[in-house]
């Protein structure tokens, strides 16, 4: 009995409507003190309110299961994307209810206002959808769902607690990967900014002999097939396949810098996942190497169907290290793992020329055997500062320093080009598009 009363007490909440009724009673009693002609009206108002409260309690507590709620969530969440979740709610009462719902989302989101309000008719069901955008990989723990129910009287509110505790992993941006994947399959990559690169010359990958159509290159006419068929026939070529594409991800402290809630490491991981997906669709082989003060994960290039899942599982666990990148270990790994000429995309970040000079000897050695492309980031905040007009002497100094650092990034690009190393200097938000664009350009120009 004590336990039942405790549950009743803990789940009973007073509403603003009840406090308004009590305020009315106080006012009527006050007037009754000065105006004797009111008689027993104040008592009638008070006892009427008490009766309505008892009726409201009876309506809400006459059943143990008046409401049912359940969270609908995916098996895993996609980092940096809007992930859709839902709450299924069903009214089992015989009357219309006003419902407030609190979903206890993980603390990583730092949100305390996930509150939904709705009205349900008797036996009505409803699905309430909302979106969450995680900015860090890892495990996110969801709590219970708490539902606050009011009857049409609305004097009290009863709380229902549904134990929906679950842990969802947040993986690298697989939603972004799927979007690019579908667009690559349907040749619609231009919709997200991927350029169509004109193929220069012909690759060595012969595809088929087909009928000539207006617009085909006259140089591809197959004269022997034309003589046999009696009509123009042309050779059709396709991009070379089974080329190796490796994404090398730097995990050192320089990749911890945050932009729009995501670290540079997360941007690099998301871009690597998309690039690997596009490479596999183009029938190339994709692989991944991660490096910090020591070599992390190594996935040899392959194009089997399970390769993308292997890459996804490995990148999910990667975290930033806080020491310098061990370039000697990276060079040794590249030489031992990558046996043929490949495209090596090195995601890193340089803030100064001295940082590049420490790594340049190893980059030049890798570039002797492979097509090396170094991808690093613009400091968008410094760029914004340098573009603002200076209002006083202090702002002039700040703007000058910002322009100096921004210009040093451009000098790094020229220094890499001087040694035959390709590079991409990009804002974090444009990383994926710029990287895929350069990969498609390299394939079109047959540079690998």
Describe this structure in words.
By secondary structure, this protein is α/β, with parallel strands linked by helices. The protein has 4 domains: 2-61, no CATH class; 67-171, Immunoglobulins (Immunoglobulin-like), CATH 2.60.40.10; 174-198 and 240-444, von Willebrand factor, type A domain (Rossmann fold, 3-Layer(aba) Sandwich); 205-238, no CATH class. Helix content is 39%, strand content 27%. It has 12 helices and 21 strands. The chain has helices at 2-10, 16-34, 41-61, 174-185, 223-229, 264-281, 307-317, 327-337, 353-369, 380-387, 393-418, 431-444; strands at residues 12-14, 67-72, 77-78, 83-91, 97-103, 115-120, 125-132, 138-142, 145-150, 156-162, 166-171, 205-211, 233-238, 244-250, 258-259, 262-263, 285-291, 295-302, 343-347, 371-377, 422-426. A 6-stranded mixed β-sheet has the order 18-17-14-19-20-21, with helices on both faces. The protein has a 5-stranded antiparallel β-sheet with strand order 1-10-9-5-6. Helix 2 (16-34) packs antiparallel against helix 3. It is elongated, with a radius of gyration of 33 Å. The N and C termini lie far apart (78 Å). Keywords: Membrane, Transmembrane, Transmembrane helix. The chain crosses the membrane at residues 12-38, 44-61.
């Amino acid at each position: 009995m004590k336990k039942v009363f405790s549950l009743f007490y803990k789940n009973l909440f007073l509403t603003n409507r009840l406090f308004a009724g009590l305020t009315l009673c106080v006012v009527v009693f006050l007037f009754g003190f000065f105006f004797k002609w009111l008689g027993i009206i104040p008592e009638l108002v008070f006892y009427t309110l008490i009766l309505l409260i008892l009726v409201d309690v009876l309506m809400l507590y006459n059943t143990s299961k008046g409401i049912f709620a359940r969270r609908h969530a995916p098996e895993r969440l996609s980092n940096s994307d809007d992930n859709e979740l839902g709450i299924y709610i069903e009214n089992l009462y015989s009357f219309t209810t006003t419902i407030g719902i609190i979903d206890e989302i993980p603390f990583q989101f730092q949100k305390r206002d996930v509150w939904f309000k709705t009205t349900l008719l008797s036996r009505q069901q409803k699905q309430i959808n909302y979106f969450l955008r995680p900015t860090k990989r890892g495990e996110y723990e969801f709590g219970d769902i708490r539902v606050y129910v009011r009857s049409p009287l609305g004097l009290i509110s009863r709380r229902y607690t549904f134990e929906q505790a679950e842990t969802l992993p947040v993986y690298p941006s697989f939603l972004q990967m799927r979007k690019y994947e579908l667009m690559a399959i349907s040749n619609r990559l231009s919709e997200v900014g991927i350029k169509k690169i004109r193929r220069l010359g012909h690759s060595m990958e012969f595809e088929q002999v087909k009928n000539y159509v207006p617009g085909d290159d006259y140089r591809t006419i197959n004269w022997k097939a034309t003589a046999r068929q009696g009509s123009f026939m042309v050779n059709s070529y396709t991009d070379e396949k089974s080329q190796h594409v490796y994404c090398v991800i730097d995990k050192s402290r320089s990749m911890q810098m945050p932009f729009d809630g995501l670290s540079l490491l997360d941007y690099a991981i998301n871009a690597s996942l998309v690039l690997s997906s596009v490479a596999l669709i183009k029938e190339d082989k994709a692989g991944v190497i991660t490096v910090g003060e020591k070599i992390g994960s190594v996935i040899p290039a392959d194009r089997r169907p399970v390769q993308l899942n292997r890459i996804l599982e490995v990148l999910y666990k990667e975290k930033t290290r806080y020491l310098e990148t061990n370039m000697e270990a990276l060079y040794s790994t590249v030489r031992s793992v990558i046996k043929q000429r490949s495209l090596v995309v090195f995601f890193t970040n340089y803030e100064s020329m001295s940082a590049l000079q420490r790594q340049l000897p190893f980059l030049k050695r890798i570039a002797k055997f492979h097509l090396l492309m170094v991808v690093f980031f613009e400091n968008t905040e410094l760029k914004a500062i340098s573009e603002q007009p200076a209002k006083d002497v202090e702002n002039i100094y700040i703007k000058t320093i910002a322009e100096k650092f921004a210009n040093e990034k451009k000098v790094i690009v020229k220094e890499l080009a001087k040694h035959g190393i390709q590079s991409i200097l990009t804002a974090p938000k444009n990383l994926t598009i710029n990287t895929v664009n350069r990969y498609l350009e390299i394939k079109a120009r047959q540079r690998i």
